[in-house]
Amino acid sequence: MTERLKVHVDPDKCQGHARCKALAPELFELDEYGNAREAGDGTVPPGLEDKAWLAKSNCPEIAIDVIEE
Ligand code: F3S
């Protein structure tokens, strides 16, 4: 069975550094203030798992969670 990942942005922690969007544009969207949220329901498409972990480790505010389902 294939592991599925989801990303989630904590809106209380996100300060709009936008590194997530730069590193994993498929997984994040920015609002009009530059704050991020997960694209869609946050499900990470197959092959983008590394980008999910990369975004998490590069967020200066530790606002990104990667959830293993
Ligand atoms: Fe916000 Fe972190 Fe991305 S602060 S815009 S979730 S890099």
From TrEMBL:
It comes from the Bacteria. Transmembrane segments: none annotated. Keywords: Electron transport, Iron, Iron-sulfur, Metal-binding, Transport. Coiled coil: none annotated. InterPro entries: Fe-S_cluster_ET (IPR051269). One of its GO terms (molecular function) is metal ion binding. Gene3D superfamilies: 3.30.70.20. The keyword Transferase does not apply. This is Ferredoxin. It comes from Bradyrhizobium niftali.
